Amino acid sequence: MSKSLPTRSENYSEWYNELVKRANLAENSAVRGCMVIKPYGYAIWEKMQRALDDMFKETGHTNAYFPLFIPKSFLSKEASHVEGFAKECAVITHYRLKNDPGGEGVIVDPEAKLEEELIVRPTSETVIWNSYKNWVQSHRDLPILINQWANVVRWEMRTRIFLRTAEFLWQEGHTAHATRDEAVSETAQMLEVYAKFAEEWMAVPVLRGRKTPNERFAGADDTLCIEAMMQDGKALQAGTSHFLGQNFAKAFDVKFQDKNGNLEYVWGTSWGVSTRLMGALIMAHSDDLGLVLPPRLAPIQVVIVPIYKGEEQLNAIYDRLLPLINELKSHGVSVKFDDDDSARPGWKFAEYELKGVPVRIAVGARDLENNQVEVARRDTLSKETVSLDGLYDYLVALLDDIQSNIYNKALKFRKEHTFKVDTWEEFTRQIEEGGFLLAHWDGTSETEEKIKELTKATIRCIPLDFTEEEGCCVYSGQPSRGRVIFAKAY
Q1: Is the pLDDT score of 1 beyond 50?
Q2: Which of its termini does the chain have fewer beta carbons within 10 Å around, N or C?
Q3: In a domain, 363, yes or no
Q4: Structure pTM?
């Protein structure tokens, strides 16, 4: 294996970048700001997709697909929406190349200019609501509960693999409802789906909250979010769910005839998570040896490393463990028997630690004689000698314990790095050290922007369990109704 990773304490950013590279998750592409997701990284994303897709379908949603290209006129129909995304849009103006007469390769054919410029989708509200106009006539056509798995392009200037790239993968749900209450309920329901996925699959504890008007999705009346804490004390927005009101319905004239025969505008929502979750998974749990993956998302949950001399010993080990391998696989546990003879066991151990495989089993000829194996768990780096008898039940329980332990460790870290602050001096000192700051805010966008300007901290959310508490704004000194969550963020 290559030299050790940079440590988190020495250089957190370099540690992250090197871990993504060495664990074979992804790499930079030839196109600036874009990434190539490698097979091991994509295998984790696929597990995320499967779990989320099942959760979406359990709540009544179905998948569809909408075009990558959006007519420029669509984007301009909803004023706040275009304002929010205008600086990030990639625009197509021509559709053909031709040979350069000067011999410099190819150039854009000036005669092949599009009649209407196209936007490479930064998000799909506009093109989807244009379709909904044709789909909705009556209250019987509602609700529409649709999700799509897609790629989007947002022309970011400062990029980092998984966390912020010019092109990324995501899912985006878009629903239409007959009443405001239905749409509000949908917005809350999908936020809880995301929170459940983050906590039960990713083992990442999240805060559920509401964005301030300054941080709200462009074109939404309300934005709900889940916020996670990374090991450097910064926040990462892990998912958002937006109540769109009737904004896009009015922009695209999507009306329906209600039960009384009246024409009404429909109510909308949209919600999404992206490959940014991969970054959250890495930064929330991993250590200076490599990835630490929760078993439910690990591409390989159990790896068996035989230690042998000659083919006879290898075959004996394999034959003895084959029933265990088959039983684990039949119950949905992914297992790898690593009989590659091009690398020594010690190298393999380090490589599987780097890749975050939750459970590693080492077994040699003498172990077989003693009816035992050595079991190592990635989360604690502890090892234990375990009898082959009842090993299946032991491993299933161990995987559950690792999943819980990783979550509880992250939850403990968040609790230890969440602070109540009451003065500007406390605020400015603590925000430099990292963590979530519970502080009073006077409710004005001017104060919010000034705090961001001075400290780079933003209001991550107003907690959904917000409680009234009289106080004074940490910056302005004006009256405050309660505390909100401030943090520096990715």
Answers
A1: no
A2: N
A3: yes
A4: 0.96
DSSP state of 489: B
**Of 285, 318, 335, which residue is a domain's last?**
285
What 8-state DSSP symbol labels residue 30? S
**C-alpha span between 410 and 402 (Å, rounded):** 12
Take residue 119 and report the two structure tokens written for it.
């936007």
Do residues 138 and 212 share a domain?
yes
Residue 371 lies in a domain: yes
Residue 186 DSSP SS3? helix
Strand 62-63 to 144-153 pairing: parallel
Supply the pLDDT for residue 2: 55
Q: Are 38 and 25 in contact (CB under 8 A)?
A: yes
The helix (run of H) or strand (run of E) holding residue 75 is: helix 72-75
Helix (H, G, I), strand (E, B) or coil at 376: strand
Residue type, 355: K
User: Is residue 360 within 8 Å of 306, Cβ to Cβ?
Assistant: no
Predicted confidence (pLDDT) at residue 340 exceeds the cutoff of 60: yes
Task: Residue 40: give the domain boundaries.
Answer: 12-69+129-285
Distance CA 418, CA 196 (A): 21
Residue 95 lies in a domain: no
Number of folded domains that form the chain: 3
Q: What is the DSSP string of 285-344?
A: H-BTTB----GGG-S-SEEEEEE-SHHHHHHHHHHHHHHHHHHHHHTT--EEE---TTS-
SS3 466: coil
The residues with which 436 forms a beta bridge, in sequence order, are 418
Tokens 């798995």, residue located: 149
Mean pLDDT (the chain, rounded): 97
Give the integer Cα–Cα distance in Å for 74 and 96. 23
Summarised one tens digit per residue, pLDDT across range 387-437 is 999 999 999 999 999 999 999 999 999 999 999 999 999 999 999 999 999
